[in-house]
Amino acid sequence: MMFSVLGTQILWYVTRSSGLLALLMLSATVALGVSSAQKAKIREVPRVYFADLHRSLALFALVLLSVHIFTAIVDPFTHLGWTTAFDPFKRSYRPLYLGLGITAFDIVVAIVATSLLRKHLSNRLWKAIHLGSYLVWFLAMVHGLGTGTDSHFRFALFVYGLSLGIVAVGLWIRILSAKPKALVLRFVAYALIALAPFTLVLWGLSGPAKAGWSKRFSLPQTTIRTKSTQVHGSSNSSSLAPPTTEIYSDDGTSQ
Amino acid sequence: MGGDKVARITSKSHYEISIDPTVCDGYGYCVELLPANLTFDDWGFPIVKTRVVEAEELEMANHVVQLCPRSAFKLSKVKG
Question: How many domains does chain B have?
Fold first, then answer.
């Protein structure tokens, strides 16, 4: 009984929590990578430990991301197939914001693959793909906020804010230690740093943080309603019965 | 620079580390890990100050060769 109650729901909880945790780890990885990527510079703190930490955190984020994707696909409610992980868009479940997350994952795969094969690739190719980390982080933020199951929870917003802060600090450290020659670059970076969080916060507060946001992206309400009412009378008949809207309320509240 | 040390080791073969400066980007992890052999030049790029790698540093030298993001190192066995 306990398991049947938890059985399907726990996947959904794990999907959400591992997603948030993966975002935090990704942010830490990006921040470490950005802040410690400066070269040809004599420094007091040994950088090699930061490089190790960067790699370990990246692995941790990857594990969490795998859990996030695995549970999301296995979860019967989302109706996602195994090809989902590599094929963005054309999904029935919140297609736009899920697609952004899938795109981010695909870039992650490219980044990890090129890093593992780094010795066999040209440095420019490796770096060009590694720069995609910025995009991954941004897409992950929009994917998380936009999919929106937890986006109106204060705790989730705190996690997003923390992620933003972590990456901002990493960028800040990098900019502060830039060579004086790179003034134009520094200025552009300042502008971007000011703009990106600003727009993210503005958009986040205007859309996903408000109640009812995720409803707009759920499956057509009418079809679910009729299905659930049909099933309602014979809910004990099979385990394949589609979950009702009551089980996976889009507000994140489960009942 | 490293020639004086080479002359002292006569009995067995030993290992020498060298860096390809055209490949190096100056990440500098190597200097932190292998200060006995490497140091920074005035611009923050690593240079070899002692070519001969002592036996107790050999493991770390191998690690440096593996770790270098640009694969700029060569650790070669030298006879005599």
Answer: 1
